Amino acid sequence: LQLHHSGCYLCGGRVVSQWRELEPVTVTVQRVRPSGMSLSAQPAGGQVALGHRLVLSCAVAMGTSPLSFSWHREGLGAPLGTGPRLQLHHVGDNDSGQYRCQVSNRDSVAESDPVNVTVL
User: Fold this and answer.
1) pLDDT at 22 > cutoff 80
2) Residue 30: which residues within 8 A CB-CB, separation 6 or more?
3) DSSP tag of 16
4) Structural domains of the chain ordered from first start
5) The pLDDT of residue 66
6) How many Cβ atoms sit within 10 Å of the Cβ of residue 114?
7) 3-state secondary structure of 109
């Protein structure tokens, strides 16, 4: 179902030689709150060597689109990026910490559990 499928529906048919209709039914399609977020890190385990690349991915099990993503690290106010993936091309010592993904669908916002990143 899509949001535009909301509306009034009725069923009709021919019984013998007479057309009959059932009472109309109103259907309202509602947005589903984003849920079931899971984070993954590459390299696995969130342990990355100094100067190497780190990729974090956020998957959403349920939620009405369009979905928007933002990435946050503990202790920083501004988002680090948008989209279902965050790439840090040359990690530094200050990139260690807990990372979370926030997912929004206009009506509600959900936040993932954190993933711990350690720069070696």
Assistant:
1) yes
2) 64
3) T
4) 35-119 (2.60.40.10)
5) 86
6) 16
7) strand
